[in-house]
Amino acid sequence: MLKRLLLLAISMALAFSLAGCAAEAANSAVTEITDSTSSPASAKEDVTTTAATTALTEATTVQTEPPEPDIRTVHIVCAGDNLIHSSIYNQAKRRAAANDEDGYDFDYVYEKIEKYLEGADIAILNQETIVTDELEPSDYPRFCSPADLGEKMIELGFNVISLSNNHILDRGEEGLLATLRFWDSHDGIVRYGAYRDEEDMNNLRTLEVNGITFAFLGYMEHTNGLSLPSDSECEITYLSELELIEKQVRYADEIADVVVISPHYGKETINEQTESQLEVTRKLVEWGADLIIGTQPHTAQACTYIDKPDGTKAFVYYCLGNLVSAQSRDLTMVGILGDLDIVKNMDTGEVIIQNPKAIPIITQYGYNYSNIHIEPYATYTPELLEEHGCDGFDQDTIDYVLSFIPEEYLSIE
Predict the structure, then answer these.
(1) What are 255-276's pLDDT values in tens digits?
(2) Deepest of 35, 104, 249, 340, by most Cβ within 10 A of its Cβ?
(3) With contact defined as beta carbons under 8 Å apart, do 233 and 197 qualify?
(4) What separation in angstroms does the CA of 198 have from each of 1, 101, 223, 234?
(5) How far apart are CA 256 and CA 240, in angstroms?
(6) Which among 174, 100, 190, 163 is positioned nearest to 138, based on CA atoms?
């Protein structure tokens, strides 16, 4: 009997033990299920974590995108021959006297082109005459203009002055040195094309604007048969001196982003380029010129891009014509202002010329060269044309000259 009771107790203990294991197993299963199926709060936390991770990833992606390229632009305006006959400076003298002022008042001559110079970073002028008060003013064929003329050019915004033209020796070495002193007495003015000595010539003129470096060189075909004294230290370079020119242009190309050259070349009062013009231009571009600003023929000629050996493009204005003059030939009444942008990618160093324009202007005067001034062709009227004092100057003349400017560059504005 005792033995039977003992076996029953052992059986009951074993049953309780098995029941406990089953409960523990069940609890374990519930725990596993709970862990693998999150509660609503846990699910919300997981969504929030996922969203934050996604936003961080996106922010990281934005931060690692390459920055916008650093693109710089310099706006250039260039003007042709500022050829000051006595009728122009005498007119300016009378206007100053009428206002009870001393000197010369050139405002009337240039006031209608001021708008084209506004906003120019670099404004380049071919000053065709000596500018100084050290010598008396003089007319054709040996020009000299009063200093007030130069002051007006600076006031207009011209900050780069080319002296490479056939009239640079009109008043001899004395006149050359005098005009150099005038331009050098003004801060911020770059002059080139004529120099006081070899050291001055070798001091290549450069100008940095908005992170872009420009170099300036100028050459002329001739100086009207005039020459410097044999013992003069002054320096000018003729276009026939090709070995020296190549050396200078190649050096300029090494130190500057943009090489600007002002050649005074071509046949006067002719709208077609001479073979010499074309040949010299090709050489200048081959050696490193980027922008060529031609003068001398006193009437507008073509402008165009030219391929460079490195695959880039230069731009040439073969002749801008006159800015103003008192010449009497009908073709000399029509000139152009050059207008363009130099664009540089500062990251890659690439430099290109964009938006080149040729803006036509008219030299206007009345009977006996009265009231000489510049008229933009955009606002030129039949009445002004009728009143013009130049015999033979008519609309056909204007149309003929402008026909040499490619339509894609001609900008009547």
Answers:
(1) 999 999 999 999 999 999 999 9
(2) 104
(3) yes
(4) 140, 41, 19, 7
(5) 24
(6) 174
Angle at 413 between CA 111 and CA 271, to 5 degrees: 90
pLDDT band at 23 (very low <50, low <70, confident <90, very high): very low
Q: Which residues pair with 84 in a beta bridge?
A: none
Rounded to whole angstroms, the Cα distance separating 398 from 363 reads 11
Looking at the predicted structure, is the pLDDT value of residue 61 above 60?
Answer: no
Rg from Cα positions in the chain: 39
For residue 312, how far is the Cα from the chain centroid? 16
Q: Specify the residue for token string 């942008």.
A: 341
Q: Is the per-residue pLDDT at 15 higher than 60?
A: no
Query: How many residues are listed for the chain in this entry?
Result: 413
Q: How many CA atoms lie within 13 A of 259 on its CB side?
A: 25
Give the per-residue pLDDT at 267: 98
CA-to-CA separations, 159 to 114, 310, 334, in angstroms, rounded: 14, 30, 24
Q: Helix %, strand %, coil % for the chain, to 5?
A: 40, 25, 35
Measured CA to CA in angstroms, residue 321 lies from 100, 268, 329 at distances of: 34, 10, 12
* Average pLDDT of the chain to the nearest whole number: 89
Q: d(Cα 410, Cα 404) in Å, to the nearest integer?
A: 10
**Burial readout 204-224 (b: 16 or more C-beta within 10 A, e: otherwise):** ebbbebeebbbbbbbbbbebe
Reading the block at residue 54, the tokens are 């996604």
Higher-confidence residue of 132 and 3: namely 132
Band (pLDDT 50/70/90 cuts) for residue 14 is very low
Q: What is the pTM of this model?
A: 0.85
Give percent of the chain with pLDDT exceeding 70.
85
* Predicted local confidence at residue 65, as pLDDT: 79
Among residues 116, 125, 117, 121, the alpha carbon closest in space to that of 74 is found at 121
Alpha helices (runs of H) in 230-274, residue ranges in sequence order: 242-255
Separation CA 372–CA 389 (nearest Å):
10
- Report the distance separating Cα 81 and Cα 77, nearest Å: 14
Residue type, 91: Q
